[in-house]
Description:
Radius of gyration: 25 Å
Structural class: alpha/beta
CATH architecture of the domain at 179-296 and 338-358: Alpha-Beta Complex
Number of strands: 14
Mean pLDDT: 94
CATH superfamily of the domain at 179-296 and 338-358: Argininosuccinate synthetase, chain A, domain 2
Amino acid sequence: MSKISKVVLAYSGGLDTSVIAKWLQQTYGCEVVTFTADIGQGEEVEPARAKAEAMGIREIFIEDLREEFVAEYVNPMFRANALYEGEYLLGTSIARPLIAKRLVEIAHETGADAISHGATGKGNDQVRFELGAYALSPGIRIIAPWREWDLNSRERLLAYCKRHGIAVEMKRGEKSPYSMDANLLHISYEGGVLEDPWAAPDESMWMRSVSPEAAPEEAAELELEYHNGDITAINGAAMSPAKVLENLNRIAGAHGVGRADIVENRYVGMKSRGCYETPGGTIMLKAHRAMESITLDRELAHLKDELMPRYASLVYNGYWFSPERRALQALIDDSQRHVNGKVRVRLYKGNVIITGRQSDDSLFDEDIATFEDDAGAYDQADAGGFIRLNALRLRIAAGKGRA
């Protein structure tokens, strides 16, 4: 294979990616370009610049992608009501295609030969990054150091830093015992005591939500306005996609909403226990289904529910840029043309309670649905023939002794 002269690295500025930056320079004798994305992880990203400069890196990209993340990735996914294995709101999964896209774009802009990431060889993220990159740039070369090197412990990484003069913030006493991933949609926690699926997470682990027991005694009520399946305003105040999610996170977290403790099936084959905080996303899912309940045709709503597990698996497994996900998205987005109106929710001690929904595009007809006199809007006698026709095959089978 041809020599690699320049690599774009997905760079956080932490221990692993700082080691990777130096390791790439040494192992491949190449120039390293760093890319640091702000997707709402709640930490300053600008300090990554000084760390990269200290390693002699000249091309440094630090970008605020929060609005693009929510508008082009989070919102389309929530139009699908996506849940992986019935519980996981896909917070880590949905961030990876955006990062992969920018890695590839920066590689093209800078004339780089390859991209690199810090995902381990055991997890899903390596698959997501690389499937995304290959889908967008089929000839791109990818370097995954965790699949090549022998620096497979914190002690070895620190020793490497000492040998090569890489500055490391020694905050071991303050360091979380968990492996964490954060963005504007969620925070995930893995590892440590969580590797025992029977061990309960410590209350101090959670960062974006109070416990339901500690939540206020007084409920909070929100009115969410929808346009084409996306929330565009909260309590009458119009907001950008990222601002919507920021505000929902803040309000929901304060009321103990959004915690999940899951054992999931990774794409690479193993089971993994993870805890997730997705306060705003928990509201988004429930409120969106409420909005659809009065604006979607029955069979269209049921079709979406049938397709959702497949859609969620595509996102989880890294196939965001696949033709099948794009085709499903086209169907889903078309279904959202009339998903407009308002949903009212009440938040109370970890619960999201729907208390109202209204829409100018509503298919709910009170004249037909009423238990009172419907003035002839619905002939109840019609139901008898409907039932007999649908029972015909059951009656035939019963008559043959097959009941």
